[in-house]
């Protein structure tokens, strides 16, 4: 029996599907609608100081026939009156007492933090999320990512908050930083109950070719926005992994944010150590109903794998995410083309010849469009199998017998690393490349 | 059983002759263009007689560079818009699309091509200009696709071009001889006008070349002459009763239909004789004009038909019946057609035998002969030393399209005996290059 309920650093919810603090959580109306649709929690659109928003706020990166593969916004925190938001938090909690309602907060002075914490606690919020991530507008006023990029400042504010708050505190991190573990560790040292990440990435999603202004355009000008959507998922996963593998930071739970749209994304985030996920762009694109697919898929996965709670597999991929120096240098795969499936697009050929290692040949017979692998040139890079448009047509086949295992790290320790390019132990030595002038032969 | 009501107005005609390949809208083009895999050495390019860089123009459509897409298309094929609509893409580019191997519908290349060029033509955006005058003049006989393509290519190179056209419209069979549900006259004519506006070649209408004097005149005034005269009227069957009222040639029938639409009178029962694409068109058109019974009669079996399978299917779907292995013996009638007397044929070791013991009459009020067009032999006789093959096709060099009389070049149906618009467009373009090479030798 699958049980999706979670206890995320003291915040309970019927499932791990939460709405991230963003336009979909701007009002009690939206959050009630979301809970009714199946979401287990919601982080209210950030409450704080009064702001004024601009008109034209979102920009998008479309790829082929997919719209909003990447998305950015220059919207600020909530522009609705604080008392309206507090009243609606109270009302939502009345209707959905078991769902998680988390108040995202962003203010400046210690006194302001203490006051607003008191306000949201009185309204019945289940937790607080500290918005240290917003990379546009608010940071120019010393808040949002301006805090997220200064671990010491971040730690101090977390300490203030923890002293004042009686409900659990989530610290939301900005990805606009070199090492995510720096603010992550500061948050933990400041006493945070949990961490959420990533906030949006500083971005320019496009330039209008007529007005020469960045998108979204506000009266002929634009500014950097915060990038999110499916395109940022790989960056989010890497940062979640960094925190989940950190000996100190991993003591607190992580709420994963960044490009989550399908059950697969959810499972991947959990496998990297997240125990709740927050979603925004997918909802802005498809509405709250998207959660049906996530929940059905997650349940199906858990049933097939015999997991009863998400904690049964949370972090299960982490032992396999290692440093490059620990990878087995003796492992060897080569590409194999299934000629029955090949449709003759020759994309593998040109990708390999122009973009990789010249290990695929075309037939001399012009009527035969099925390419062949030149196995001695194949380094097992995967590129051909990635560009192939046919499912399971090109597979990477294991060629080593599995008996040997040597890593760069081990070779370094054994003083067995190449020191010159002529060294027989050097990787590329003797590997075939065509002559430069072969490029001009027709 | 016919499925179409007799059209009595232009609106009803348009309904019965709905465009087979309607213009794509922006959204359709956006999604369809996103599917292209951008194959290496793409099979679609190889399958196109004019070798348009199809993956490139599809990518250009997708990246909102429709003008660039049109340029890619026109640079390879001056009749890119018409070809996008009328090309038998199922056996050319789309037939070669690798998606076919996956049982996935191929990219709708023809419709995407038409989408791009139509948009550019309608915008009036000029992509080409007449080349700097090189002082040389070329005459072109016939303004069909071969002649237009030749004229456009020569104009870009700086030649002064005069086209002599017997009819009052350009485009030859593209306007006069293609089924109305495949392309409209407006669509064809606007492309020619678009090219002419930019490239400034001259077309002299109602200017048939019919005498030796005219030929001598052309030879003295022009540096080279391109023959793009296509084919002539429907060939005679030499059957008894062929002169009865109600016996028409398919080419003439289609031409009348394209010009007069619903005002053409098609009776209740029609027999179409022939097994080529023109026969399919004529039969389909008769059915769409409201004939209650249209019978397609072909002397061999179904699989021996020259027509493409999809053309046959289209005729059948219009309500046409077919009769295979029959040969006409006589057109029955006394002044007016009353039927066709057929005999069954048998294939004996590859030879077609007529079985005179199995003779029957199919009653009808109209007979459409789609048994091939006569060649323009009488015209070729006007030109000295012009080599013609046994099937009355002009013999040309397969690369330069130059004739045995070196001053002449030729292309299109006149050299291939009847093929697609796209073949003519290719011939015309290549002949222009042949002319340029020859004059600069």
Topology at a glance:
The complex is a heterodimer of chains A (442) and B (441).
Chain A (H helix, E strand, L loop, with lengths): L5 E3 L2 E3 L3 E3 L8 H10 L3 E8 L9 E6 L2 E8 L8 H14 L4 E7 L3 H14 L3 E5 L13 H4 L2 H14 L4 E4 L8 H9 L4 E4 L3 E3 L21 E4 L4 H12 L9 E4 L5 H9 L2 E6 L1 H6 L4 H15 L27 E5 L9 H9 L4 E2 L10 E2 L9 H5 L6 E5 L9 H6 L29
Chain B lengths: L9 H7 L9 H9 L8 H5 L6 H9 L3 H11 L3 H7 L6 H4 L12 H15 L13 E5 L3 H12 L3 E5 L8 H4 L8 H15 L2 E3 L7 H10 L2 E4 L19 E3 H11 L8 E5 L3 H12 L4 E5 L11 H9 L3 E3 L2 E8 L3 E12 L2 E13 L2 E4 L7 H4 L27 E3 L2 H4 L4 H19 L2
Parallel strand pairs in B: 1-2, 1-4, 2-3, 4-13, 5-12, 6-7, 6-12, 7-8
Antiparallel strand pairs in B: 9-10, 10-11
Helix pairs in contact in B: 2-4, 4-5, 4-8, 5-8, 6-8, 9-11, 9-18, 13-14, 14-15
CATH class of the largest domain in chain A, named Alpha Beta
Number of strands of chain B: 13
User: Which regions of chain B have little confidence, pLDDT < 50, spanning 5+ residues?
Assistant: none
CATH superfamily descriptor of the largest domain in chain B? FAD/NAD(P)-binding domain
Q: Separation of termini of chain B?
A: 62 Å
- Strand tally of chain A is 18
Helical region count of chain B?
A: 18
Point out poorly predicted stretches of chain A.
none
Rounded average pLDDT of chain A: 96
| Strand order within the widest beta sheet of chain A | 3-4-7-8-9-10-13-14
* Main sheet record of chain A: 8 strands, parallel, barrel
| Residues in helix, % of chain B | 25-40%
Q: Residue-averaged pLDDT of chain B, rounded?
A: 95
CATH architecture of the largest domain in chain B: 3-Layer(bba) Sandwich
């Amino acid at each position: 029996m699958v049980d999706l309920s979670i206890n995320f650093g003291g915040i309970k919810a019927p499932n791990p599907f939460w709405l991230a603090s963003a336009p979909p959580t701007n009002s009690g109306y939206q959050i009630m609608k979301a809970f009714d649709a199946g979401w287990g929690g919601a982080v209210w659109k950030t409450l704080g100081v009064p702001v004024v928003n601009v008109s034209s706020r979102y920009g998008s990166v479309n790829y082929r026939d997919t719209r909003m593969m990447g998305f950015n916004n220059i919207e600020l925190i909530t522009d609705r009156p604080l008392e309206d938001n507090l009243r609606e938090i109270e009302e939502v909690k009345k209707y959905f007492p078991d769902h998680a309602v988390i108040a995202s907060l962003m203010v400046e002075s210690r006194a302001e933090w203490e006051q607003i914490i008191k306000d949201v606690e009185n309204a019945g919020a289940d937790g607080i999320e500290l918005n240290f991530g917003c990379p546009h507008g608010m940071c120019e006023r010393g808040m949002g990512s301006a805090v997220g990029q200064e671990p010491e400042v971040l730690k101090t504010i977390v300490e203030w908050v923890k002293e004042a708050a009686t409900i659990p505190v989530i610290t939301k991190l900005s990805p606009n930083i070199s090492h995510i573990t720096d603010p992550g560790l500061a948050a933990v040292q400041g006493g945070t109950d949990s961490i959420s990440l990533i906030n949006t990435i500083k971005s320019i999603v496009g330039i209008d070719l007529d007005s020469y202004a960045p998108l979204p355009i506000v009266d002929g000008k634009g500014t950097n926005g915060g990038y999110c959507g499916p395109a940022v998922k790989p960056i989010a996963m890497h940062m979640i992994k960094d925190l989940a593998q950190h000996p100190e930071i991993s003591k607190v739970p992580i709420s994963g944010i960044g490009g989550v749209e399908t059950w697969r994304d959810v499972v991947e985030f959990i496998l990297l150590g997240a125990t709740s996920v927050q979603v925004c762009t997918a909802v802005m694109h498809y509405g709250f109903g998207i959660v049906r697919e996530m929940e059905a898929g997650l349940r199906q996965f858990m049933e097939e794998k015999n997991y009863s709670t998400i904690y049964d597999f949370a972090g299960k991929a982490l032992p396999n995410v290692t440093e490059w120096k620990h990878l087995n240098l003796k492992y060897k795969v080569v590409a194999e083309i299934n000629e029955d499936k090949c449709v003759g697009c020759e994309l593998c050929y040109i990708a390999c010849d122009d973009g990789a290692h010249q290990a695929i040949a075309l037939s001399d017979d012009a009527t035969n469009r099925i390419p062949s692998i030149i196995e001695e040139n194949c380094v097992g890079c995967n590129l051909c199998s990635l560009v192939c448009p046919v499912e399971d047509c090109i597979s990477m086949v294991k060629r080593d017998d599995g008996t040997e295992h040597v890593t760069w790290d081990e070779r370094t320790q054994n003083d067995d690393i190449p020191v010159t390019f002529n060294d027989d132990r050097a990787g590329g030595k003797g590997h075939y490349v065509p002559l430069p002038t072969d490029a001009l032969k027709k | 059983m016919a499925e179409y009501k007799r059209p009595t107005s232009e609106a009803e005609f348009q309904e019965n002759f709905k465009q087979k390949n309607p213009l794509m809208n922006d959204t359709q083009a956006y999604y369809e263009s996103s599917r292209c895999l951008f194959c290496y050495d793409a099979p679609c390019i190889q399958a196109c007689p004019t070798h348009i860089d199809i993956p490139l123009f599809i990518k250009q459509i997708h990246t909102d560079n429709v003008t660039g897409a049109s340029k890619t298309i026109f640079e390879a094929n001056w009749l890119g818009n018409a070809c996008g609509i009328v090309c038998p893409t199922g056996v050319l580019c789309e037939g070669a699309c690798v998606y076919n191997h996956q049982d996935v519908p191929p990219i709708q290349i023809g419709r995407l091509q038409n989408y791009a060029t139509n948009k550019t033509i309608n915008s009036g955006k000029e992509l080409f200009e007449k080349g700097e005058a090189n002082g040389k003049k070329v005459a072109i006989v016939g303004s069909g696709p071969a002649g237009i393509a030749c004229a456009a290519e020569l104009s870009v190179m700086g030649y002064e071009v005069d086209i002599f056209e017997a009819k009052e419209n350009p485009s030859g069979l593209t306007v006069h001889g293609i089924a109305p549900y495949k392309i409209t006259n407006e669509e064809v004519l606007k492309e020619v006008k678009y090219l002419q506006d930019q490239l400034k070649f001259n077309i002299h209408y109602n200017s048939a070349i019919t005498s030796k004097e005219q030929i001598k005149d052309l030879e003295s005034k022009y540096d080279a002459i391109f023959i793009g005269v296509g084919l002539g009227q429907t060939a005679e069957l030499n059957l008894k009763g062929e002169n009865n009222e109600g016996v028409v040639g398919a080419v003439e029938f289609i031409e009348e239909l394209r010009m007069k639409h619903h005002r053409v009178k098609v009776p209740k029962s029609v027999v179409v004789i022939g097994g080529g694409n023109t026969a399919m068109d004529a039969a389909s058109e008769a059915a769409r004009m409201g004939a209650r019974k249209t019978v397609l009669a072909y002397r061999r079996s179904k699989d021996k038909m020259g027509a493409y399978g999809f053309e046959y299917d289209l005729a059948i779907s219009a309500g046409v019946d077919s009769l295979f292995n029959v040969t006409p013996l006589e057109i029955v009638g006394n002044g007016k057609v009353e039927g066709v007397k057929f005999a069954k044929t048998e294939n004996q070791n590859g030879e077609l035998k007529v079985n005179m013991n199995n003779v029957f009459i199919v009653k009808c009020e109209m007979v459409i002969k789609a048994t091939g067009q006569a060649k323009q032999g009488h015209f070729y006789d006007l030109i000295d030393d012009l080599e013609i093959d046994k099937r009355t096709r002009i013999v040309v060099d397969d690369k330069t399209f130059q004739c045995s009389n070196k001053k002449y070049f030729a292309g299109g149906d006149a050299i291939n005996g009847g093929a697609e618009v796209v073949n003519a467009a290719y011939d015309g373009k290549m002949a222009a290059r042949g002319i340029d090479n020859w004059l600069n030798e």
